[in-house]
Every structure is written in C-alpha cells, then in structure tokens.
Amino acid sequence: MSYQKLFDHKISGEAAKSWRAEGKKAVGTLCCHIPVEILRAADVLPVRMRATGCGDSTDAEVWMSALSCSFARGILQRWMDGTYELDGMICSDGCMMPSRTFDNAQHINEKLGYGRYFQQIGAPRVYNEMGIAYFKKELQDLVEGLEKLSGNKVTDEKIKKFVSLYNEERALVKEVMDLRRAKNPVISGEDALKITLAACDIPVEEYIELLKELLADAKNRTPIKDKRARLMIIGSALDDPDYLKTVEDQGAIFVADALCYQSMAFTGQCEIDDNDVLGSLADFYLKRLVCPRMLTCRDELHAFILKACKDFAVDGIVYQKMQYCECCGGESLQLEKLLKEIDLPVLTVQREEKHSNVGQLAIRAEAFVEMVEKGE
Amino acid sequence: MSANSLDQMLLDGKISIVDYSCELIGGQVARAKEKKASYLWTLEAQYTMWTNIRDAHKNGKKVVWFGGIIPTELLAAFDCVPVYLDVAPIRLSPSPELAGKFIDEAHKYCPSTMCGLDAIELGMTVLDQFGDKPDAFIYSAVPCDSSRTAYPAMQKLLGVPTFIVDYPYRRDERGIQYLSDQTEKLIEFMEELTGEKLDWEKFKHYMGNANRCFDLQIKNANLRKHKPCPLPGRFLVMNSAINAMSYTEEMGNLLETEYKLGCALVEKGVSACPGGEKHRAAFLQDMLWSSAGTLDWLETQYGTSVVMDTFGFQHGDFYEHMDDRKDCLRTMAKKQQNDPMIHGAAGPTENYKYLVNELFEEYEPDVSIFMGHIGCKHTWASAKIITDMVQEKFGLPTLFIDVDGVDGRYKTNEDIKSQISEYMDTVVNG
Q: Residue A347 and residue A195: Cα distance in Å, rounded?
C-alpha cells in the first residue's frame, strides 16, 4: 500500500527537515484562519501545529497554568521540547488559548534569544464587507512578513497556483470523507482523522498524490461490517485518533465529523477574483465554516451538523468538550434542541489532551452504542 | 422587606433581578438616610441605575442590553436605557446562593469552566429572570471565549434585533478605523430601532457626561498614587460601574464626591488603613467582586491599601472636537480599545504586560497579588510572563490565588484570607 504515510498520525518533522535542508523556511501555523496559500507562495512550508500524543505538558503548564486548555498547552510543550524544529510561528486569533500558546512561545523565543519569526494576524469574528476588508489588510501584513522571512516575492500568480493546489486537496479530502457515506465504509473514523492529520506535516503536492492513491485503492479495501452504530463526532479540537478508536472499539463507527483537524479544515473551494486575489482569500477564509469562533456562524454550523447527520445516516452524536474550551463547549443550548427534534441522541463527554480516561469513555461509549444501535 | 426574604423570592423565581436590586438598594438607601450615614452617596448612583432600568418601558424608553464595551453615550443619545449586563453578576456575586442559581442554570448547557459573569448572564436569560425583555441587544466580540459563547446563545434566546461589534485583536490605527466604521453601522442600527435620527446635540450632552466621568475617574486614580493612599480598595469595585453609567450625571456626581473626599483625606495625610498604611498592594487581574470585604480586611489586618487593579487602570481618552463626527467616532473607538479589560485581557499578552508595568511604575506597590478569577483563563495563561516581569523589573514576588470573582462557592472568604495571610506573614513581613 503506497499511501501508508497517510496513517502515520504522529507529528513528523521529516518534511520540514528536508525543506529546511534546501535552505528554505518552514513555519508552524496555529488555527485555521491562516491562508496557507500565501505561505507556499513565499516558498515557506506551513506546518499546522498540534499536540498529538502529548501526555505530559508540565513545562508548558508552568507558563500557561493548569487552568488552560491542555490541547493549546500541549502545542506549547511540543514547541518547547523540540518536537517542532521550525523557523517560526504564525497565529490567527482562533480562540484565546492558542493565542496564549503563541504569546508564550514568542516570549520564550525572545528570552532565549532564538530570533525566530513570529507573526500574529487578526481575523474578524463577523463575516461582512468591513470584516473582509480588515482581514485583507492583515493578509497583506502576512505577505510582507513572509517576504521578509523568505526573501521571496509573493505574487498574485504564485498565490493563484497554490489556491488551485489547495482546492484540489480540499476536493480530494471531501471525496475521501465521503467514502464514509457507504453502508459499510472502507475507512474508520480513526483512520479518517489520521488521514487529515497527515496534512499537517506533509507538503500539499505530496499529500494530493497520497490521497489519489488511497482513492484509487478504495475499492480494494475491506468494508467495515461489524459496527452497530454510525456516529458523528463534534466539539473541541481533536488531534488524537486513539480517542476515536476507544469509542469505535465498542461497536461504533464514526462516519461524519465537524472537527477542525478533520473535515472542517478542508471545506469549500476558494474562488479567486483575478482583480483582488488577497480579497478573495480573505473572503474565503472568513466565510468558510470551521469552528464556532465566528460569532455569526452558529446557525450555519448547526445546519451543517444536522445535514451531515442526514447525509451520512448518523445514529448518534458524540460531543466532546475539552476541559477549559469555552469556544467549542457552548453549543448544547441550541443544538441539543435541534437534535431532539429529529430524535438524535447525544453523548456529551469532557476530555483532556492526554487520553487518560480510556476505561470510563469505553463504558459510556458502549452504553451509548447500545442505546442508539438499530437492528437490521 | 428583609434582605433574606428578598433573596428567597429571587431564588424562587418570584421576582426579577431588577426588582430585587431596586428593593435591596432602595432599602439600603432608606436606612442610610434615616441614620444620616456618610456612605449614602455610594448607594444613590446604583439606585438610580437600577430604577432607570426598571422604569424604562413605563417611561416610554427602549431598553438595550449590551455585553462587552459599548459606548453608552451613543445609546443614551437615542433616548434608550443601556443595560450593561455585567451589573447583574456583580450585584449577585456577594451571595453565593443567588449567584449559584443562575450559574448552575447556565452550566446545564455550557462548560462548567465558563466565566461566572457570562454564566450568570446566560442563566438569567435562560430563566427569563433579569426583568423586562430588552428591545435590542448589542454585544462585542470581546473580552473572551466565555462571552463569545454566552452572547450568541443569548441572542438566539432573546430573539430581539441584535448588533455585533467586532473588536480587532490588536490595538492600533487599523483597529481604530475598523471600530469607527462599525460605529457608523451601529448608528444606522439604532436609527432603525428607534425610528429617530441621531440627535447630535443630545449626543454631545452625553459625551460631555462621559468626559466628566472619565476625568474624575482618572483624578481619583491619581489620588491613589499618594502615599498613603487615601481611598479604600472597595472604591475600586464601586468605580467599575463606569462602563455601565459613564453617560449619566449620577456617575459623575458619585466620582466627584469620591474625589472631594479623597482630596480632603490627602490634605490630612489620612490613609484608608485604620492603623496607617504599611503596604501598598496591586491586584494583577480581576476584582474580587464576590468578596469585596477582603479589601477592607487587608486594610485593617495588614495596613495594606489596594492601590490599583489592572482592570481598573484607565488611559483617559476624551472627546475634544464634539462637532466633528469623524473625530468623535475615532475617540469612541480609542476609548473602546483602551478599556482596561479589553486592552489588558482580550488581546496579546504584550498589552497586558504594558498595563501591569504602567501600574507598577505609577502606583509603586510593594505587594503583588495575582487575584486570579478562574473564569479568566486567558489571563492565567499570561500570568507567568506578567509576574516574571514584576519580579525582574520591580523585585516583587507575586502571590497567586485562584478565586472565582463571581461564584463565592468556589472558595470561602476564610480560605482566601488564609492564603493572603501566609504570604503577608512570610514573604512581605517575614
């Protein structure tokens, strides 16, 4: 199987290492409102940062306190422990916690005199003309910052080339995720998350080839038949496939998601107006539905979840909330009402980045599967 | 009616928070008048605020709820009664039972780690127990993830015309322009809501009131730089009403009385600490609304004045050219950006660091306390950067205390005092 690399979900520094060995820059990105097309147009490799497998974030806790989201803390830990060997970090203010990961990493960088590149861009929280215009200016700052870092000129033509590539990536990921519509899908929820996590570290060109190989081989993969319940997973940033495995081991399969490290990071197609390339990117990144950080997206997000439940024939939803994650933890008030109307049960679980409550989660998942499973 | 039976009625859902507050403060005002108490002035502005809210509809005025920093002078110019939502949790926070009722209601739907301020605001909306339903709701994208979760949910529950002000993450010229442009849209929203064009003369009147309030707020803050600090820490809690009431004459009167009192005390060289000022403390995070008595205790027990808190620190942006619309809206944007809670907490840690540095430079505290409201997780996540700076630049070790500034059930007053005592006895006085 030539696309095995898609299932290596651990954080890999290989691509960044090779990239940097060629004298080019590789930069970590935090949150989903950073147009990676601009980075690539500057010949800078974007590495989407995550905390996968971070069991101990003690060092980061010293900086961010125990009252912080362990996902964001885990990323700082990974940054501090050298898992990421990168030339810098770019952050958009997705929610407050990754912004603090950025602040602390920047502070440590300055304190230790590393001289790495740090850039924060502000993404509006409303989608309207004024917001787009503001965001476009922020993106112009990003262009200038990256040009300075890389020494490369960012042109409209280069951006358009990478918009086209990333659009292809988005379409292919959708095709892969849509494989889960089948009665007996050929990929599990655990594998689906591994596949999208792989995009964090691999250059888009290589990732596209791997996805194509997977799709070409899809018909040869063994359909998963022994599952009793089709579930959707929603909620906080989740970058740990083992978490999904624990639930799936109880007889379920995740066939849909609304997660920022999974389907939501690849939604839509960016359409470029040749007369306003940066404006087009600003519009696309503000408009696309990723997470509840946008104040004007709640209804749309809920509609997306309801539609996915229907399209993927979902029997129940697992709503996982990271401890200290208010951004993604507050959907219950409206969403549960809507789900009740279509008689769709929800299992709400709290979690930490470290997957420690395996036994408890398994018991709750097993009971949930028994509740929602439908006989043939 | 006794406070106990009022509490019970609020707990039982028989009265609204507005009626509760009017009754409670009304009773306190009546008793203070009867006793000719010197503190009467501290109650009057609050009473006016709550009765204005209660009687708004009766007086033919529209009620506009707002969350985050929204310019009240503009809303008042449309003859509306602005209701700053934080006044409800701050009013209820001294009673763990009352605050708990609304917090628990919100926690049925939201993370239990959500800030108590926002939880109470959401809880009271779910239970429909604040008072009259507002005619409109305006909220900002700041200060934090808790408010960004609570406000949209409240918007849905209320179903009234709503306007969102999107605050930029960084505070700079681009942000000022972005906010100014949005204020033009806000004016259009208000014109549609009220069916009236903005009356600029009226607006000028309220801008004048706001200028007066902020001028006095800064003067009072400057008084606190005196050694000894003449004003009690408790006034810092009281002064935070400025975000709700800066458009009113009553707030100006309150601050003026405070200023006169402060000036008289400075002249006499009197401290707020009965036995004289031995130490000057800075609070590096939120105010301890649920236990304001701790500030009195610090003054009596340790001779320690709380000279300033980070989120009470004011910059001072004033309307200067009141006939120049563009200039007024830019000033308004600056005021919005420079509000301490927004400037310090809602943006990059650099802003917060700047604020703390200014506080230490100007007020010269010798006691540093990070009175960390647990709902303010993003300030906790900046705390080491901030307190390292305090240690390195000002040579002061900081006491960290985790508290819930709103929900007194989290930690008892005795526990809080005990933690402070250990620090005062061993580090400060040891």
A: 25
